[in-house]
Design a protein that fits this description.
Beta-Lactamase, five-stranded antiparallel sheet, 4 domains, 12 strands, elongated, 50% helix, five-stranded mixed sheet, alpha+beta, 19% strand
């Protein structure tokens, strides 16, 4: 399909804009030629040199001008390549649309596969991608994206290359280059949800394998070591009893570690509510430190834990607190760069206050807003589900579920994420 007049005109404009610096260079060479000629005349050079020097400079300038004509349009192609490279960074079907004439400039492979190559050819109107009966004011969408930086359509009916109608979410964002401004339009369907659910099922199978291959043998080892220490299998010497006790203590430590991994890794547990039980928050912090200290060391980040050993007991959902603290510290590790540190501190007053400090920028208020996902009882979960949100939004959701809050403040020492939880659940929650 040939490009329309508007598209051809915009390409010619791009070619002129891209050749302008080279034309400046050619003018400089012409000035140099005149300077050489004047210098040769003033020095009374031989006539042959007086003629040859300007002619050589003139020939070089003419050659450069010819190269300008040949190479100029290629720069416009480089501009298109930059736009296509930007589209390749999108993980969903995406188009680049010129807001001046509302025509497609380029498309990524996902969009070509979704709509078909003929529908996303340069110069095509994006309205041809809509399903029958669907109406979208693309000019308004493009204008909003150009002026405000982003525009969205919650539900848009499109027609795929197979003729199937599909409802997708449309996101339009402004993308400016040196010589042109385009709007990148992404079509987000439920493919991401399917991918996350598939990943959740793989993760659940991994957790089941860990439970079967590690926790079950550990329980057997603990059982036999207990029989040895109690003398049920026969009398042992004092050194043998000490060795059996050390084996039992080490096995319990590994069992707690495996249990922590299973608790923070099982996707379905994010949707389950457990009855509150009393536990030691200081001991839980040290167990979370054991889970994350290796990751912090590999990232060259110093994980500092300054939690008093005499913190009062916390009566809450133990698994939810473990998940909350794990993801909060993990989020600070992700926000930090090598050579920095993440500090975890705790205070006990009317409420338990956990403070996680990193050197990253302050978090937006939207990330600290609890999501409305309600916990599901265990008998209603038939298959593994991914968490409703990740990162700081997940932490805020878990904090609200435990009856507390998560806030953020920043000073010269860094960004502080403040988690406040009641030591006892409210009577209304019980």
């Amino acid at each position: 399909m040939a490009a329309p007049d508007g598209e051809s005109r915009s390409r010619r404009d791009e070619g002129r804009e891209s050749r302008r610096p080279l034309l400046y260079a050619a003018c400089v060479l012409l000035l140099l030629m005149l300077a050489f000629s004047a210098t040769a005349y003033m020095r009374n050079l031989r006539p042959a040199a007086l003629i040859a020097l300007p002619l050589m400079t003139l020939a070089a300038t003419a050659l450069i001008l010819v190269l300008l004509v040949v190479a100029g349009p290629e720069v416009a192609t480089d501009l298109r390549a930059r736009i296509e490279q930007r589209l390749r960074h999108c993980f969903c079907p995406a188009l680049a649309v010129d807001p001046r004439n509302c025509q497609i400039v380029a498309a990524n492979e996902e969009a070509t596969e979704l709509f078909g190559p003929a529908q996303v050819t340069a110069g095509t109107d994006p309205s041809e991608l809509l399903a029958d009966g669907a109406a979208v004011d693309w000019h308004r969408v493009l204008s909003t994206a150009v002026n405000e930086g982003e525009a969205q359509i919650d539900a848009c009916n499109i027609r795929t290359r197979s003729g199937e109608a599909r409802v997708v979410h449309v996101r339009a964002s402004r993308y400016a280059t040196d010589a042109r401004q385009v709007v990148v339009i992404g079509f987000v369907g439920n493919e991401a949800d399917k991918a996350i659910t598939g990943f959740a099922r793989v993760q659940e199978r991994l957790m089941s394998s860990i439970s079967h291959e590690l926790r079950t043998p550990l329980n057997v080892v603990l059982g036999f070591s207990e029989l040895l220490t109690t003398g049920t299998l026969g009398e042992l010497t004092e050194s043998q009893i000490d060795a059996a006790e050390e084996c039992h203590i080490g096995g319990e430590r590994i069992l707690r570690l495996v249990t922590d991994i299973l608790d923070v890794g099982r996707c379905r547990s994010y949707y389950m509510s457990s009855p509150p039980t009393p536990f030691e928050p200081g001991e839980m912090v040290r167990r979370i430190e054991t889970l994350l200290v290796g990751q912090a060391r590999r990232a060259d980040i110093k994980l500092e834990v300054d939690v008093p050993a005499d913190l009062p007991q916390l009566e809450a959902d133990e698994r939810g607190f473990k998940q909350l603290l794990y993801h909060l510290i993990l989020s600070s590790l992700d926000r930090s760069t090598p050579g920095e540190r993440v500090n975890v501190a705790a205070e006990a007053d009317e409420m338990l206050t956990m403070i996680v400090t990193d050197s990253g920028p302050p978090a937006p208020d939207d990330e600290l807003r609890p999501r409305t996902q309600q916990p599901l009882p265990a008998d209603r979960i038939q298959y593994p589900l991914a968490p409703p949100v990740l990162g700081l939004p997940l932490c805020a959701t878990l904090a609200a579920r435990l009856g507390g809050s998560l806030s953020c403040r920043s000073d010269e020492e860094g960004t502080h994420f403040v988690l406040q939880l009641p030591f006892r659940p409210d009577s209304d929650d019980e």
